[in-house]
Amino acid sequence: MARRVRGQLLDALLESLPDACLGVDRSGRVRFVNHKALKLLAPDPRAEWVDQSIWDVLPTSDFLKLLGQTVKSSVDTAVEQVVLIPPQSLCLCQLSPVHNEENRLQGWVAYLRDMTPVQQIEKGIDELLRDVNQQLRTPITAIKGYVETLLEGAYQSPEVTKRFLQVINEETNRVTRLVMSLEEAANPNVKPADPIQLDLIPMLRRAANMFEGVAREKNLMLVCDLPERLPVVEVREDEIHKVVVNLLDNAVKCTGLKGHGQVKLHAEARRAGLEIHVSDTGVGIAEHELQKIFEKFYRVQDGPAAELGGTGLGLAVSQQITQEHGGQLEVRSEVAKGSTFTIRLPFKR
After folding, report:
1. Which residues contact 47 (CB under 8 A, 6 or more apart)?
2. C-alpha to C-alpha distance for 70 and 310, rounded to whole angstroms
3. What band does 128 get if pLDDT is binned at 50, 70 and 90?
4. Cis, bond preceding 158 (omega within 30 deg of 0)
5. pTM of the model
6. What pLDDT is attached to residue 5?
7. Cβ(85)–Cβ(40) under 8 Å?
8. Spatial distance between the Cα atoms of 14 and 35, rounded to a whole number of angstroms
9. Distances in Å between the alpha carbon of 163 and those of 146, 157, 205, 211, 213?
């Protein structure tokens, strides 16, 4: 009875471990294995491995090679190594020797921690840094070029000066939007300011005005379809402004890829709250990517929009801000026809 209870407790302990775990004796026979290890290592996770040789049950992999060498050479010290397990799992393997009361080697316990998610995050960060570098270099190079041209004498023409300053202003706005999105991602736990009761019309017009110049450059029509007033909502203005600016920025970029089209900002009051729509006639987003675009660091992989790169932070931050206001951020899109993003903000109850 006591032995059965002890066995049940050991089984429960093995299954509760956060990592895949496998125990082998000095001959290389499996003495215990938890389900996480079977799922990671076995083509059939229902296979019976206990009392079987590791060379009979383990698939060919870096892990089998490491474990086999350890068993054959009777290594009596802990071993730690990163191993690749087919088809594409990257794991940190820790092999710990097990001794009896006389300090004789009895076998080894192997712990396997799947590092694939960490590898994917590191890859995403590397891509993010490359994109941030590119996105900063382009506007900074443009600003530097226009400033140098003005200093060389172009400022003497009021018409040229005005045009150059408009471009400098737009490029500065691009840098500002990038920095804002990075700040939001880097400081998610910063306590936000208190919300205030506000009519959003002036803020929405300011956001639209930021894109008038770049829309003209890209041969786009920027439509601002707003009423004179809206019922007030309780919001943190600067945060909702960030969301609208990010959606307009994306809309202008995606529509600009076609060389023509329309971006429209529209707002209206509904029974439960306000709706702000940013729609475009751009390249659209494939259906299978619509749920992924709100994930941090995710960039569209298919279609023309993949050319835009980006940090993969803007939509994730925008969704977070909207949800913190008790609202929703939704999207409808059709490839080659365009997208509509809708911000829903509730009235105070």
Report:
1. 38, 57
2. 46
3. low
4. no
5. 0.58
6. 46
7. yes
8. 9
9. 10, 10, 22, 15, 10
Query: Which two tokens mark 198?
Result: 């506000």
Note every long-range contact of 142-145, with CB atoms under 8 Å and residues 24 or more positions apart, other chains counting: 142/167, 142/168, 142/171, 143/168, 143/171, 143/172
For residues 205 and 19, what is the distance between their CA atoms, to the nearest angstrom?
53
- pLDDT on residue 3: 52
Domain locations in the chain as residue ranges:
2-114, 120-346
Rg (CA), the chain: 29
Residue 225 per-residue DSSP state: E
* 2-114 homologous superfamily: PAS domain (3.30.450.20)
* Rounded (to 5) percent helix, strand, coil in the chain: 45, 25, 30
How many whole angstroms separate alpha carbon 159 and alpha carbon 146?
14
Q: CA torsion angle for 183, 186, 236, 266 (degrees, to 10)?
A: 70
Token pair of 249 as six digits = 């920025």
Of 93-102, 155-164, 178-187, the least confident? 178-187
CA 187, CA 178: separation in Å to the nearest integer? 14
pLDDT exceeds cutoff 70 at 8: no
User: Quick check: 191 pLDDT over 80?
Assistant: no
Q: How far is CA 219 from the centre of its chain?
A: 31
pLDDT tens digits, one per residue of 196-225: 999 999 999 999 988 888 898 899 999 999
Within 26-70, strands assigned E span 30-33
**In CATH terms, is domain 120-346 a member of 3.90.280.10?**
no
Contact by Cβ (8 Å): 35, 15: yes
> How far is the CA of 284 from the CAs of 253, 294, 326, in angstroms?
11, 15, 27
